[in-house]
Amino acid sequence: MTNKITWIFLLAAATLQWSCSSGPVSEKAEDTATLTWPQVEEQGRGTTVNLMMWSGDPLINAYMQNYVRPTLKEQFDIDLQIANGQGSTIVQNLMAELQAGKAESELDLMWINGETFYQLRQIDALYGPWTDKLPNARYIDFDNPFIGVDFQQPVNGFECPWGNVQMAIIYDSLKVADPPQGREALLAFVQAHPGRFTFDNQFTGLAFLKVLLIDIAGGRGSLNGPFDEARYNTYAPQLWDYIRQLKPYLWKEGRTYPEGVAPMHQMFANSELWFTMSHNDCEVDNKILQGLFPESARAYVWETGTIQNSHYMGISRFSPNKAGAMVVCNFLISPEAQYKKQDP
Question: Which element (helix H / strand E) includes 7?
Fold first, then answer.
């Protein structure tokens, strides 16, 4: 477990290097940068836009299928095709296209952030800058560091913010009257109630470990900036020491970890766990409305803070339909679409 997570931390900070053929850009795609917005809309009208995105949230899936797709079709005659994929899948697909020297990508639009954005920028797979063309970009504060900086690098118009979330810990208020605040309180709680807490071995669990590491390093802002190996080597051993103290009191004594938050949520719903967690602070309300979580479920953020970040839409540098992708993004950040997105 320790070696695996250490590798993930180091991978996240490492520079991805790749030598590849850039391939020609289609004439239509080249022209997009010089078009006015009415011309972009006209060029995008009546086209198909291929979007790759994570499909693990039923509410987001329903929002995209039942609201976004039909509205885009009605207003712009755009056929939005959605394929499941995230993170490494997106990077591998675009890297393979670059290596093969393909003139056009099979992807137009991608739901990305963090590591994925960093890696795609390293291999020069993202189109940009383009967000300044979007009329609805006037509603976005790009000076906000939670929006204008992603994975310690400026966004610089190479991805369009779609939303903002904060990691939250979810608990059952009928079983936990006073949820633990901070890592020391958590250790004391799990020692008194063994087997009722754990974290998954994927994205959300990694985010939880980052929260612990930041807390150990001194809290908010303590690890801001580029990766610093000396600081990592100072604080990482303290993190692993804490995990070793925690491990015997975790679910299944820390011998195994849930494969993602979905099984964690199910175990929480079945009262096998008293806690779960989410990188979306609104998820507890959504899961209560879906009938998965009990009405006694509550979400909270540690007093020492948790990770907050934004998620984005990026356009492939070799997309044959950049105009259509831009029209889709402009719609997604419209007040109407954002309001509908927040309506459970």
Answer: helix 2-13
Give the CA dihedral 248, 250, 251, 254, nearest 10 degrees. Answer: -60
Residues 6+ positions from 228 with CB-CB distance below 8 Å: none
Do 53 and 85 form a contact (C-beta atoms < 8 A)?
A: yes
80-119 pLDDT per residue, tens: 999 999 999 999 999 999 999 999 999 999 999 988 999 9
Count how many Cα atoms sit within 13 Å of the Cα of residue 226 in the half-sphere of its side chain.
2
1 to 96, 254, 271: CA distances (angstroms): 30, 9, 25
- What are the φ/ψ torsions at residue 311 (nearest 5 degrees)? -120, 155
According to DSSP H, which parts of 256-315 are helical? Answer: 261-269, 283-290
Percent above pLDDT 70 for the chain: 91
Lowest mean pLDDT: which of 15-24, 83-92, 170-179, 231-240?
15-24
CA dist., res. 201 & res. 263, Å (int): 11
Cα–Cα distance measured from residue 330 to residue 324, given in angstroms and rounded to the nearest whole number? 10
Q: Is residue 236 within 8 Å of residue 227, measured between CB atoms?
A: no
Is it true that the peptide bond before 194 is cis, omega within 30 degrees of 0? no
Answer whether 119's CB lies under 8 Å from 89's CB: no
* Paired residues of 48 in beta bridges: 79
Task: List, in sequence order, the alpha helices (H) in 168-292.
Answer: 183-192, 203-217, 229-246, 261-269, 283-290
Residues 339 and 331: beta-carbon distance below 8 Å: no
pTM of the model: 0.79
pLDDT per position as a tens digit, 13-69: 333 333 333 333 344 444 688 999 999 999 999 999 999 999 988 889 999 999 999
**Predicted local distance difference test score (pLDDT) of residue 11:** 37
Give the pair of three-digit tokens for residue 255.
């011998």
